[in-house]
Amino acid sequence: MSNDYKFEGWMGLNGDSAKGNMKWQSYEPKKFEDTDVDIKITHCGICGSDIHTLSAGWGEQDWPVLVGHEIVGTAVRVGPKAEGNIRVGDRVGVGAQSASCLRAECEECSGDMEQHCATKVTNTFGDRYMDGSKSYGGYADYWRGPSHFVFKIPDAIPSEDAAPMMCGGITTYSPLIHNGAGPGKKVGIVGIGGLGHFGLLWAKALGCEKVVAISRSASKKADALKMGADEFIATDDDPDWAKHHSRSLDLIVCTVSSPKMPLQGYLTLLRTNGSFIQVGAPEDKIPGVSAFDLIVKGVKIGGSAIGSPKEIREMLDLAARKRTQPWIQKRPLSEANQVILDMDKGMARYRYTLVNEKHASA
Hints:
The protein is an alpha/beta fold.
């Protein structure tokens, strides 16, 4: 297959980019290495991280930035030392991480915890590889990066569904499996948005005894029940919600990105030795809690960052076996500026997937 393609995409040039001001332009990808893969992008999910980055909400960026880390497409160039038995023509995906040190002496990389590599984690966009070259994301025609973080997509998963799994999916799958979600466990998911809806889908697919959706209002109750929730807690509708549901859950995965969330109330829902795992990343601090909120029941507060390559493959396998289907809306890549505005307004139900129409129809 010819390698005469061009690397072009929607570039954020400054903090006003999140206001629908990305510019389509060419860019220079990293130098191709023997372990790399080039992907002709057909689909890319939109993640909240894209907006936090384009608005510089998480801090000033290394402009220009090309966002998008829920990438699916076709492998068009595969290095001779590429991993994963990837071949030209394979349908593949990339998530939020595109590199780590991968050294044998690295405890994290050698222990299937690459997302926590202490030496260097390279994010799929807005970051630098170890050689100093910039990483560029998936609101684009092509993507290049290390094969260790490229994954074959099972035939049973449509590309538009696989794309949001690469970040939104794994961000909720990983904390569930790490904290024992499955038969006999009662699990709560806080926030019924792009991340939270995945949490409900995975908890159901994993066979949890009870799955509880937790949101401020009941506006998404009907959807949550269709996604697999057994119960729904609307915190604004019941002033005594924490008391009424006290000690009812073994695990809570919180996808809410708000410094005003009622954390103490969430901890009240936990049973003895329960766990509260935060995955939503607010631009401010999360609320404080009293030490006694933890001590009395022996509960734990933790965090989780995306997932490892091993976990991503396991997630894709589960989705294929259980026919897990995220709730997505397809939008043209050509309209990316409008789509991020709609995303920021909370209009997605529940995840947007950008479709690169010139490649998806090829």
